[in-house]
Design a protein that fits this description.
By secondary structure, the chain is of the alpha+beta class. Helices cover 45% and strands 21% of the residues. It has three helices and four strands. The protein has a four-stranded mixed sheet with strand order 1-2-4-3, covered by helices on one side. The chain is globular. The protein starts with a strand and ends with a helix.
């Protein structure tokens, strides 16, 4: 699936656990290949948080920052929580608060 972030088109893919080389990794962001990969055999909340984690990496690195994993985790958990718990607000925001 193609997604756009900061005028970049990324390829988002769900993958099997054995497709990520590093044991214990739940996702991967590759700036050069413009891809975000997330393991598909996880709980939906873990998938969402992992996606946001990789997205924070992409946004940070493309803007010249190399944040700590702790910062990336905190942002990912925060974005997941916000989007999960504020669906009505997000819908209103998409509509331009009309």
């Amino acid at each position: 699936m193609k997604i756009k972030v900061l005028d970049h088109e990324l390829d988002f893919k769900f993958i099997a656990s054995n497709e990520i080389s590093d044991e214990g990794k739940m996702g991967q962001c590759n700036i050069q290949e413009a891809t975000i990969l997330v393991k598909k055999d996880m709980d939906k909340n873990v998938i969402s948080t992992t996606f946001y984690h990789e997205l924070v990496h992409f946004i940070s690195i493309t803007n010249g920052y190399t944040p700590s994993e702790e910062f990336v985790d905190a942002m990912a958990i925060g974005f997941h929580s916000f989007t999960k718990n504020n669906k009505a607000f997000i819908d209103k925001m998409r509509e331009g608060f009309k």
